[in-house]
Amino acid sequence: MTQRNQDKIPSLYEKYKDHFFIGAAVNQDTIDSQQELLKKHFNSITAENEMKFEKLQPEEEKFTFAVADKLVSFAKENQKLVRGHTLVWHNQTPDWIFTNKNGSLADRKTVLERMNSHISTVVKRYKDSIYCWDVVNEVIADEGQNLLRESKWLEAIGEDFIDRAFEFAHQADPNALLFYNDYNESHPQKREKIYTLVKGLVDRDVPIHGVGLQAHWNLSGPSYDNIRQAIEKYATLGLQIQLTEMDVSVFDFDDRRKDLTEPTEDMEAIQAERYEGFFNIFREYSDVITGVTFWGAADDYTWLSDFPVKGRKNWPFVFDEKHQPKPSFWKIMQF
Ligand code: HAH
After folding, report:
1. Residue owning the nearest CA to atom 15 of ligand 1
2. Region 110-136: what's the mean pLDDT?
3. Whole-model pTM?
């Protein structure tokens, strides 16, 4: 087992308690295998997969809450916050929602009803345990002039599916903080599109309270300048900002090398510098930033070991495979 004694290490979340929450994405396995680390260094958790549509309602009206409930209980027992992820997304969402019995695309009214039923069941169930939700995830088109990406949600309902999702979530729990969440959030072109989308929501008085910047970053990008500009632009919307899925890949996105069994010394050093730079910026904007969540906790488990190259190990966090602090950890503890 990789559980190691955390007693001699200062706590990451305590160090940041006057700035913002420090979160980690967890799953059914890591909630056990990383338990000591999670308790010590993180005061917020997010379910990596277990609250996605396909996990909670794989078949119509057959809700499966067991694993999600288990994560929520862990949070309660250990006084951790829970961020909910995610209600409306084009991935990990079952086809039945968009399909009639004969296989054709269901009509707008039916899909809206199904969306409402899902959102209201899930959000109400966790009313007292989940303080914020990624209501809508990744609807912006990466390329081209279109604002929205093509998706079944868009096809079946039309552009207002986003407004409706936020309204349904707000009806289900008027106290929950509701977020729009996306990746490549610091790229200038996508930043402008995300801004346009969220500005529209705000102008139409749609209940939205925050913008989630996923922060799937690497050793060479995005630039500090682009990150700053993104934070400043989103901040003008008057909403709070959270870094929701942070990891710092040791590979550039287009680098498909598969030969490494451990990160090189250079990679570790550059990663530490990058983490230092990122957290310097986060602290600088801590009046608008309310949370920084890593998409995992330590290098023994990361979704990046299967993305974008299947089966290629990655080491994106500030704790190593044995849950010990990396140079990156000490850099972000130094202020
Ligand atoms: C995220 N997509 C999702 O929000 C999260 O739910 C999932 O577990 C992992 C990553 C990020 C993403 C990306 O960085 C590049 C292309 C598509 C999606």
Report:
1. 183
2. 98
3. 0.97
Mark whether 262 is an active-site residue. no
Smallest CA separation from ligand 1 atom 4, residue: 137
Q: How far does the centroid of ligand 1 lie from the alpha carbon of residue 115, in Å?
A: 21
Does 83 sit in the ligand 1 pocket, CB within 6 Å?
Answer: no
Residues 212-238: tens digit of each pLDDT: 999 999 999 999 999 999 999 999 999
Residue ID of nearest Cα to ligand 1 atom 16: 183
Q: Does 245 qualify as catalytic in the annotation? A: yes
Ligand 1 centroid to 201 CA: how many Å? 23
Q: Which residues contact 165 (CB under 8 A, 6 or more apart)?
A: 87, 88, 115, 119, 135, 136
Q: How far is the CA of 46 from the centre of ligand 1 (A)?
A: 14
